[in-house]
Amino acid sequence: RCSSSQVCPATEIPITFPLDTACLVTRGGLSEEIRQKSRMRGTLNWAPPRFQIIFNVQPTQRRSDVIASQHFLCAGCGTEVEPRKFSKLLRYCEYLGRYFCDGCHSSGESVIPGRVLSRWDFRCYPVCVFSKQLLDSIWEQPLFKLNVVAKSLYGQAKELQRFRELQEQLISIKKLLRACRLSDGVLAEFQQLPSHLTDELHLFSMDDLIKVKRGQLVTTAKAVFRSATDHVEACEVCQFGAGFICEFCRGQDVLFPFQTDICTRCQDCRTCFHTACFRDEPCPRCARLQIRKSLQETAST
């Protein structure tokens, strides 16, 4: 035998095929064998499931229609099923919306992302082996940008809306703490939460969402936020380096962007003011900046 690094001499190549192979060639059996083996990679009527994140709920369809659309083949392995005898034994996958044989569907169950995103439904539903493995593999991955794939979900789930408010505050105060040279200890407490939750708004994994549903994330987020605010209130670096004084009332209290219950930010210059003070009046800082810009333009001409 020749190894992969050797060249096989022409004299060692048999001129005639072995009997069984020759029979396949002469009788057209070789093409049939190739066709059968190619089923492993897919045919015109069947292709194996592919890795995909499905954000919607599969539409309700008649069982017979779905199986017929699959050409009476298992959606997982392509095995042909005799319609009258065995099609009733096929098992439905709620994630892919297809039917599978018992070799490809072991009656496993999983939370369906589409049902969570559209109905806040965390019940487990039957899925095939492929879908079960896929969903398990992405369970803790932050793949779901709710303001893109589930805009109405905040209105449906009060606990999610409450967590979003906390998330906005955490993201804001974390940015402030990163600029403080004395905040290493309190920043370490943020590790109790997945980093994406305190870095980017609306971004969640399925694991995050079910913990929001159970109240676990809100409890942890409140504790982290409390420690962070305690630091800011006691830290001179934060008080004098990152706070704002309301330019409307000129009060003595220092305002921070994370104080969303009492503070409002100008959408243009991002300066903070008391919500009670900042109503229909123009922003003083923006007005100053506009005057300065006009003076510079006048001086340049």
Automatic annotation (TrEMBL):
Highest taxon of the lineage: Eukaryota
Domain Rubicon Homology intervals: 91-293
One Pfam family matching this protein: RH_dom
MF GO annotations: phosphatidylinositol phosphate binding
GO cellular component: autophagosome membrane
GO biological process, any: autophagosome-endosome fusion
Annotated PANTHER family: PHOX (PX) DOMAIN-CONTAINING PROTEIN, PROTEIN ASSOCIATED WITH UVRAG AS AUTOPHAGY ENHANCER
Protein's name in the database: Rubicon Homology domain-containing protein
